[in-house]
Write a structure and sequence with these properties.
The chain has 171 residues and is mostly helical. It is built from ten helices and no strands. Helix 5 runs parallel beside helix 9.
């Protein structure tokens, strides 16, 4: 059996998709345990019980893993989408959206993950603007959809819809 430097048995994974999921799961566990500054690829590999080769089959560098992790962390987005979809009227959808955003701070499974990335947002923005733009768009989409629905039904009267969307994005 293959062993790592600490003597723990390494996994042999033949499915690339499963290998990637193991890396992402291990990365999240390490990130939650050590924080941003203590995050090391070696720690992820030990946690996943995978080889260095496994890492490089999926990622070129540590930041690529972190961006992939950000893309995979859709728990906040799913939570928001679920709550807004369950609301009936556009006004209720906006209330549900705001409630979901506030709830994020009180749900340990969501808050810690969101906080980890929020603290490094500016640094990641310099290197991965497109990935962060997609993440932001996913978070804002339920609110924008609710506003558009309210405009379409006449519940929300807006003189300048382009300006309204600009304000929404600023939120």
């Amino acid at each position: 059996p293959l062993r790592d430097q600490a003597g723990a048995r390494r996994r042999k994974v033949s499915d690339a998709r499963m290998e990637r999921l193991l890396l992402l799961d291990a990365a999240m566990r390490v990130l939650e345990r050590t924080g941003w500054w203590g995050f090391k690829v070696d720690s992820v590999l030990r946690q996943a019980r995978l080889s260095t080769r496994s890492f490089y089959r999926h990622f070129e560098k540590k930041n690529d893993l972190l961006v992939a992790l950000l893309a995979e962390i859709n728990g906040v987005t799913v939570h928001i989408e679920r709550l807004t979809a369950a609301a009936f009227t556009p006004t209720d959808k906006i209330t549900a959206y705001v409630t979901a955003i506030v709830d994020t701070a009180y749900r340990p499974d969501l808050a810690k993950r969101a906080a980890l990335f929020a603290t490094q947002w500016r640094e990641l923005q310099q290197h991965y603007p497109d990935a962060l733009r997609r993440c932001r768009a996913g978070l804002i989409a339920p609110l924008e959809n609710a506003i558009r629905a309210g405009q379409a039904t006449g519940d929300f009267r807006v003189e300048d819809s382009a300006r309204s969307e600009e304000h929404t994005s600023a939120l």
